Amino acid sequence: MKERILVTGGTGYIGSHTVVELQNNGYDVVIVDNLSNSRADVVDNIEKITGIRPAFEHVDCLDYAALENVFTKYPGIKGIIHFAASKAVGESVQKPLLYYRNNIVSLINLLELMPRHGVEGIIFSSSCTVYGQPDHLPVTEEAPIKKAESPYGNTKQINEEIIRDTIASGSPIHAILLRYFNPIGAHPTALIGELPNGVPQNLIPYLTQTAIGIREKLTVFGDDYNTPDGSCIRDYIYVVDLAKAHVTAMHRILDGKQKDTVEVFNIGTGKGVSVLELIHAFEASTGVKLNYQIGKRRAGDIEQVWADPTYANNELGWKAETSLEDTLRSAWEWQLKLRENGIQ
Ligand code: NAD
Ligand code: WQD
């Protein structure tokens, strides 16, 4: 009997890749998504990849009644992976109440519904943003949580606390908090990938849109940081490797292997890569020359952060496997496919 998993935000970037990996591992998946930042045809493309069409409910996690109906319509949901959220850091500064409502109330709704419907565990999409600029690198799960630089980052910190407090109050559920570093790339089939609305805020979609000619030039936001080449350093992790971490975490919860009712794992490669190094790696791995310039620093940017993934490697039994070059090639193939399909 396939175990049933609810994936909120499952037509989104990371969610869609995770649905594929869940299906590849024999799970029965139900997607809930309000399509505020994704398209319904992602369900078709997931089916093309796995041969299995996931159930899809066009529901807003803020709509408690509609969300409860999903649990009634699909009985026996054992676990939830909660991706659904608004995630644009800059937008969160302009529209904090939208972010606090969407990201916090959607989680509260799920936490209330879980014990009512026998759901055993939840995996929460957290972010390395909770660490701010770490005092020591690479950053471990024991690093202190720093004051959030944005309402978006604050919602991640608050949500982690809400989960801990809910479980501490006696809720019979378990949780794994996955703190992602910088997910990039696309599925090897180029059928699913990152589809940013409007002008991309993140580096890789802006870079590939520049490489294909949609954007005229990529601006490197500062080369006067205290790093070897002056540009910021991040831990860029292949989205499929990240997706696989969720399957491993769900196995851990449902197989009763957790050592605590709430566990936290840093999901990164453990390798810091600068913006300039990434640009050169893109050019070398795709053969495409990139038009870029050095510009001013971007307000709020962390200078350098990358993960110590030892705990996830040893305890969770997960490790990032894909090279930066293969990851960047997948991002480029996806951008080419978008042009071929007239989407971008
Ligand atoms: P995404 O925007 O592609 O996916 C989020 C999905 O959730 C979208 O499909 C959107 O339509 C849906 N959604 C939003 N609000 C909803 C609601 N109220 N009800 C139902 N569906 C809703 O983003 P992503 O990059 O896949 O990120 C997924 C999760 O991972 C988010 O929680 C994000 O904060 C977190 N995260 C992302 C990154 C990153 O760099 N992409 C890094 C760290 C953490
Ligand atoms: C990466 C690097 C930029 C664009 C953000 C959120 C984080 C998470 C991941 C949700 C930085 C530089 C970028 C450009 C550039 N999202 N850059 N030119 O800022 O590390 O993290 O996305 O959880 O919470 O903060 O990712 O891709 O925006 O930037 O030079 O046009 O690329 O300065 O050093 P970031 P990013």
Automatic annotation (TrEMBL):
<dbReference type="Pfam" id="PF16363">
    <property type="entry name" value="GDP_Man_Dehyd"/>
</dbReference>
<comment type="pathway">
    <text>Carbohydrate metabolism; galactose metabolism.</text>
</comment>
<keyword id="KW-0119">Carbohydrate metabolism</keyword>
<keyword id="KW-0520">NAD</keyword>
<dbReference type="InterPro" id="IPR036291">
    <property type="entry name" value="NAD(P)-bd_dom_sf"/>
</dbReference>
<dbReference type="InterPro" id="IPR005886">
    <property type="entry name" value="UDP_G4E"/>
</dbReference>
<dbReference type="InterPro" id="IPR016040">
    <property type="entry name" value="NAD(P)-bd_dom"/>
</dbReference>
<comment type="similarity">
    <text>Belongs to the NAD(P)-dependent epimerase/dehydratase family.</text>
</comment>
<dbReference type="GO" id="GO:0003978">
    <property type="term" value="F:UDP-glucose 4-epimerase activity"/>
</dbReference>
<protein>
    <recommendedName>
        <fullName>UDP-glucose 4-epimerase</fullName>
        <ecNumber>5.1.3.2</ecNumber>
    </recommendedName>
</protein>
<comment type="subunit">
    <text>Homodimer.</text>
</comment>
<keyword id="KW-0413">Isomerase</keyword>
<feature type="domain" description="NAD(P)-binding">
    <location>
        <begin position="6"/>
        <end position="329"/>
    </location>
</feature>
